[in-house]
Structures
1.
Amino acid sequence: MTFHRLLLQASILLLLCTLALPARAVTLLRDADMEYALAQVASPILRAAGLSASGTKILVVNDSSLNAFVIGNDAIYIHSGLIARMDRAAMLQAVIAHEAAHIANGHITRRLTNLGAARNAATLGTALAILAGAASGSGEAAAGLAIGAQSTAQRRFFAHTRAEESSADQSGLRYMRSAGVPVSGMLDVMQLFRGQEALSVGRQDPYVRSHPLSRDRLRAIEAFAAASARAETGGATAADYWFLRAKGKLTAFQRRGSWTLRRLNESGAQDIAYMREAIARHRNSDTKRAVNAINNAIALRPQDPFYYDLKGQILMESRQFNAAVNAHAQAVRLRPRDGLLQASYGRALLATDNTRAALQALERARRVDFRDGSMLRDLSVAYARTGQRGMASVVTAERFALRGRLEDAAIHAKRATGLLPEGSGPWQRAQDVLLASERAARKRR
Ligand SMILES: [Zn+2]
C-alpha cells in the first residue's frame, strides 16, 4: 500500500485532554507537503493569536471521524476526516483559531501546571508525569512519548470547561477577524455538526462531544459573524490554495485512483490537479503516467520542493532507486531544514547502499523532527550497517516508545545503555526511555 509508505507513520498514544480523545494509540499522517500547506493556512491565525507559527505545528491524525484537539502548547491535532469534509480554508482556519485560543488563553498551560502539583496524586496515572516532564523540557525522548490516560478521572481533569469553550470561541473569532479571515467559516463548521446533538453520544463525532454546540454558543457566533460580515472580502487567498493542496493530496491518497481521476477538475489549481493525477496513476500502478503527471506539476512550480519529494516517492515505490535519489536530492536542496524531506532522501540513499550519506541525511532529519517512526527505523538500519550497535538500539527504543510500546522500548534502551559511553547524550536518551517505561510499569501494577 503506497498510502502507508508515503504517510510516514508515527503512532502516539494520546493523553486525554478533552472528552473526545481516544484512549488508544492514534496514527499521525506525516507528510512534508501536507504539513507545510497546513502551516500556511494556519499562520495568519497563529500570528493573530500571538503564537509562534514555527512553534505550533498542525499535525494530521489518521482518523475519519471529525475532531480537533490540543494536548500541549506545541501542536494542534486535526483528524483527516475533518479536513476531507471541509470546503474552504476559512473553515479549517476557524477550527485552528478555536484550538489556538485554548493554547493562547492558557487552558493547556494551567493543566500542565496543575499536573506538576498533582504529580503524585493517586488519581493521576504516572504516565501523565511523562507529559509534565516533557512540558518542563526535561528530556527530548519524553517529549515525543506515548501518553495514556485511561481513567475517567483523568479525562475529566483534561476536559475543557464550558467557560473555556466560550472563551475559545470568542478569542478564535477575534483572531479570524484580525487576520482578515471570513468569520462565516466558523458558522460553516457549526453547520457540519448540525443535527448531531440529537444523536446518541456513541454516534456523535468526537468534536461534538468535546465542544458541545449549545444554543448560546451558536447564537454568540452568529451575532459576531453578522457584525463582521461587512468586513469580509471575496477573492481566493494564498490560504485557499494551500487548503486545497492539503485536502487534494490527502483525499488522493485515501481514495481509489478512479475516484480522484473523475474529480481532477475540482482541484482548484492546475498544478494541484497534476499532483493528484500523479498520485491516482501511481495508486493504479501506472508509473509512466504518474511520473508524467508529476513532471507537469513540477513544470508549473519548478521551485516547489514537495513536488520533487512526491516524484521521489513514486520512483522509490516503483523500485527506481537511483532516479528517486535524484528527485529527493532536489527536494532537500530547495528546502534543507525540513526533517520529513531529509528522511525521504535518507531512505532513498539507504536503498542505493549509500549508507554514509544516508546516515547524514537521517541524522539531520532526526535533529529537526524526531517524531517520525519510519525515519527512526531507517536510522537504526543505517547505524547497524555502520557497526554502531548502541546507537541502533537507542533509536529503536525511541521508535517503540513513540508507538506506546514501552516494554519493547525498555528492552532496547537497556541494551543501548550497556553499549554506549555512560553519561553521553545518546546514553541519556536511553535513560529517559527507561525511566518513562518504568513509570508506566509502576502505574500498571
Ligand atoms: Zn474547545
2.
Amino acid sequence: MKALVYYGSGKISWEDKPLPKIEHPADVIVQISKTTLCGTDLAILRGGVPDVQPGRTIGHEATGYVTEIGPAVQDLKVSDHVIIPCNTSCGRCEPCRKGLHSSCERGGWLLGHTIDGVQAEYARVPLADSSLFRIPDGVDEEAALMLADILPTGLEVGVKRAEVGLGDALVVIGAGPVGLATILAAEFYSPARIIAIDLDDNRLAKAREIGATDTINNKDGKAREKVMTLTEGRGADAVIEVIGNPATFQLAQEILATGGRMANIGIFHKSTELHNETLWTRNITLRMGVVDNSTVPVLLKMVQAGRLDPSSLVSHHFHINEILEAYEIFKNAAQEQAIKIVLSTDAAKKAGSNKVSNDNEFIRQIVERVLASL
Ligand SMILES: [Zn+2]
Ligand SMILES: [Zn+2]
C-alpha cells in the first residue's frame, strides 16, 4: 500500500509500505476512504513535534471502511463505515472515566504521532470499539471527515469552555480551519455577535459566509479598538484564541469584558504572559485543553438533521496519489485560499460516495493553474 512517510524536518515521501496488521486484540484495520491535512501535520513537517520519528506515516483525521477486526473487538464489524478521530481512547482508565478521553492512559494522540497514521491507503486503529464512530446513513462523508478533529475541537475546547451563550459577544481569534469550525459550532448557542479576527481577507470572507457577524483584519494592529467599538466599550463576553502565540494571547486578554471567559485552542510553542494584575478584579475565566471527541455523536446528529454543514469548510479535492501537491497548496494556504483539503482514495470511488476525488473540481484547478502560468 501507499503511505505518506515523514523523514525529518521538511522531508516527506509518498511511498510503498507493508499493509498494517492487527497487533493487539482491540485493533481494527481500516481501508482509508478520505483523509485531510491538518495544521498539526505542518508543525510535524517543520520538525516542531519531536516525538514523531522519521519513518512514521503521518495523518490523524480520516474516514474509511473496516476490513479486519481483532479478536477482542465487539461493536464493530468488517465493512463498517467509520470516522477515525484524532484521539483514541480505551474508555476504562481513570482519565477516560472522567470524560478526559484525550488524556487516556492507553490512547490519546497516537495516530500519525507515536504510531503510523491515516494519510495512507490502510491504517491500524487501536482501541477501536471505544475510539471509532460509525457514520450513519445519509451523512455526507466529507462532512463526517470534518468531525474527525476540527468541529469537535471548536465545540469542545472553544465554544463549551468559553461558555458561549445566548446574546453574547464572541470573538474568535484566527479564522483558519479550526477557527471557522469554531464559528460553525458557536452558532448553536446563538451569540448576538461573532467577531472573527485574522490577517487574511479570504479567510475572513469565509468567516462571514458561514456566520460571523463582523470581521476584523488585524494587519493594522487595531483589533482591540475595533472590538471595543463593536461592543460599546465593554469587550467580549467570550474570546476563543485559535492561533497560539503570545501576541494573540495578549490581545485575547485585552478584549475580555468583565466576567469574560477565554478558551485557548491554539497550540503554544512559547510561554506567554498572563496579566493577573489587571484581570484579577474582573472575574475572568481562562480554560484550555485538547479535544476528547465526546461530541462527535451529537455533531453527527446535527449533520444528519441538516442543521450543520461542515463540508462548507472544504476548499480543495485531490486523489490521495496527489498528496505531495496537496501539501504544497496547504503550506501556502493564504495564497492558495486553502481551508480543508480532502484526499480521496480508490476506496471512496468504489463505495460510490459523493464528491469522490471530485474529478471536475480537480480538472478545473489544473486548468486554472495552467492558465495562470501562461
Ligand atoms: Zn488535526
Ligand atoms: Zn483510557
